Each structure stands twice: as structure tokens, then as C-alpha cells.
Amino acid sequence: MELTRRERWRLAFEAVVTAGIIFLCYFAVYEIFRWFVVTFGTVFEDFWFFGSTLEDIRTQELWGLTPLVFLILIIVAVVAIFWRLKRRYRQYEMQHVIKELHYIAKGNYTHRISGNYSGSMGNVIDSIHVLVDSTIEAMEEERRIEQSKDELITNVSHDIRTPLTSIIGYLGLIEEGRYESEEEVKKYVHTAFEKSKQMKTLVDDLFEYTTVRQTTTPLDYVTFDMIQLLEQLAIDFELEAREKGREIQVVAPRESLMMRADTEKIVRVFNNLLSNALKYGKGGKVIRMEAEKKGANAVISVKNDGETLPQEAIEQLFERFYRAEVSRSQETAGTGLGLAIAQSIVELHGGTISAKVTDGWTDFTIVLPLNTEETVTKSK
């Protein structure tokens, strides 16, 4: 820490004052002792170790002491002055730190306390910087959460408003009698019904998303065969895939892959991935699900050879309400929450999910811990 000019002058003045006080103390002690020697000389003469020193004390002033004694007194004085100035310097350091802390507290969180501090003061400064950094991080996280809430409200409002406007419009036509035949009424009602289902899907997905986003969401763990589960999913989607000219394949190097997880939520993950592959993998012929064991994890890939997405779209796929379609069409696009829900479910199980494009294949890879007794024992 660099002292100001005023502080340096104050330190110099304090050094002079301290030296003067020490000299006065020396002089007072010496004079008091000499008075005792002069007044009670006979008492001190009985002590042989005083010798001729008593006579010297009677006749000499303080500055007449021997050089050795003077040197000792000077060393003691220098030590006392240094100790006093060091304490004062520490006080100045503390004042500087407090002043800069007040500056930081006014909202200047990027400011750092300047100067080189050592010892305990240096540790305090480092702790302050860590505290400020963590405070900034917490504030940024809170800001991101608030922004995320605003975006959530905006996106939900947008997605609900479109079908709701259609429902109100068609029901309004019926209410006002602005139709020419019963067939036209049925058409209006059917359209309103379809839009209502879209709204219900959005509300259901939104509810599930907010549920699985909570880290305290309970999971109903059961032991199951992942490969068998994938084969069952392939059967469930077989009819829809055939209608779109696709084939769903399950590829695994082993007959079974036992693991523990919440099967209901895991099925939701693969339902979302398969639905997306069928919906967006235009021009593709094959949807392939691969599963293998790597260490204590199960690695499952869901890939399709349909139309691929650009890298910037791949990086945003797991953001809620994101759709690769710029138009956000309700006919081909869903709520935009499917992959965000899938990611949250995988993370609840302690796993990861990622997407990439390789050799014309859009590949979603999921890594889940097996959580079986065998893997737990080996990890220990």
C-alpha cells in the first residue's frame, strides 16, 4: 500500500514525538534513580556489585553514561519507535481497505482493493475479493433467473395466444350465427377442438418441465433392461415410422443392459427424441438406437439420417421453447419444451445428453449411470 503525503508526514511526526517521549522517560527514570542513590546512598553501598557505579551516578548526567549503556538505550528506543509506527501503518492500511470497501458497496463490484498486503491483512483482502466475486456471480445468476422467467412468460404467452385467438374466433362465429350450414359449424368446432388440444399439450409440457427442473423431484428407481426398453419403444413407434417411410433399428453389442432408473421418465426422454426424429428428420430412411456399456455408465444414441441442422441450431436445441423452425409453426413443431424436458430428466438421473451432426447423421447421445449393485461395488 502506498501512503499519501499527509500520512507520511504524520508518521514522521509520530516518530519524532515517540522518540521525545522515550527520551523523557529515560531522563525521568534516570533522575529518580539518581535521587534514590543520593538520598539513600548508605543502603546501596551495602550491595557490592554497585562498586564505583554509585559515585558515577551521583556526579554524572544521563548523557554522561558509558557508550555501551547508551547503545542499549538507543536500540530499545528504535525498537519501540518501529513497533509504534508499524501499528500506525496497519491502521492506515485498515482505513484504506474500509474506504475501498465503501466504494465497492456503492455498486462498483468490479473494483479490486489496490496495494500489496502481506500477512493476515493480505489474507483478509483475498477473502474480500473472493466474497465480492461470489456476490457478483450470485447476482448474475439471479439476473439470469429473472430473465429466464421473463422469457418463459413471453414464450408461453405467445404459444397460448395463437391457438386461443383461433378458438375465440371460431366460437365467436358460431355465437354470432355467422355460418351457412351445419357442416360449416362442425368445421369451426373441429378447428377449435384441435387448437384446444394444442393448448393442453403446451400446458402439460410446461407443467412437466417445471416439475423436472426441480432438483428435489422424487425418482421412482426400478431395475430394468435398457435394450429391452429400446426394443419396446421401436415397436411403439413402428406404425408411425412406417407411415413416414422410416425404419427404426435397435443396435446393441449385448443381449441385455441392466440398470436402475425411473423408467416412466426415461421413456419420456426417448419418446421426445423419437418424435423429433420422425418430425424433423425429413428425407431420412433410418432411425437408429444404439446402446452399450462403458464403465459404470450406459451410453445410448438416438440418430437419424434425415435433414441435418446447422451447428448454431444444434447448440440451442436444449434451450426451452427453442425450435429449429423459425416460423414456430404449430403444425410441424411442438411446444419447444420436449428436449428441455429430456435434458432435465437425464440430469435428474445424474447423466448427460448432447447433440451433434456426424457424417450426415443427427446424433443425440445420452450417458446414464447404471446404478446397479454390481457397478456400485466395483466403484467402491
Automatic annotation (TrEMBL):
The chain crosses the membrane at residues 12-33, 62-85. It catalyses: ATP + protein L-histidine = ADP + protein N-phospho-L-histidine. It is found in: Cell membrane. GO terms for molecular function: kinase activity. Residues 155-372 form the Histidine kinase domain. It comes from the Bacteria. The keyword Phosphoprotein applies. Its main location: membrane. It is an enzyme of class 2 (transferase). This is histidine kinase. It comes from Alkalibacterium iburiense.
